[in-house]
Amino acid sequence: MARIVIKSVAPLAYVPALGLEAYAKRNVDKTTFELIKIRASALNGCGYCSAMHTRDAQRAGEAQERIAALAGDWEASGLFTAKESAALRYTDALTRPDGELPDALFDEVTTLWGDKGLVQLAMAIAAVNTWNRLAIGTGMTADDL
């Protein structure tokens, strides 16, 4: 059981995170958003979010092979489209602690997704990273699903 249940302690605390999530859902296609959620959660070591997003992706019909690849060297799998791969590389760059965004990756994302698409992906990545920090910070685990 989570150490603290946010909605019990401070229900309004979820409002900003839900707004960010809602924006991402409206502006990033469902498949890409699910891939981003799984990848960022794996990088952040968030067991609760990894389990939840894996389950959601499976229910939406995502291939188990693609889901499993996201926990490791997904690039070597060759299972993702060019747009998905760019979004996943961008997820890696914005989620990893070094915070480096190489020019080549920025150019790749803007070429495939456009300027607005890059911003929309950044918001989706920020949303999942926010949820990961909240879940880890309150002690949520996969058992809490």
UniProtKB/TrEMBL annotation:
Pfam families: CMD. One of its GO terms (molecular function) is peroxiredoxin activity. SUPFAM superfamilies: AhpD-like. Gene3D superfamilies: AhpD-like (1.20.1290.10). InterPro entries: AhpD-like (IPR029032), AhpD_core (IPR004675), CMD-like (IPR003779). Residues 17-92 form the Carboxymuconolactone decarboxylase-like domain. This is Alkylhydroperoxidase like protein, AhpD family.
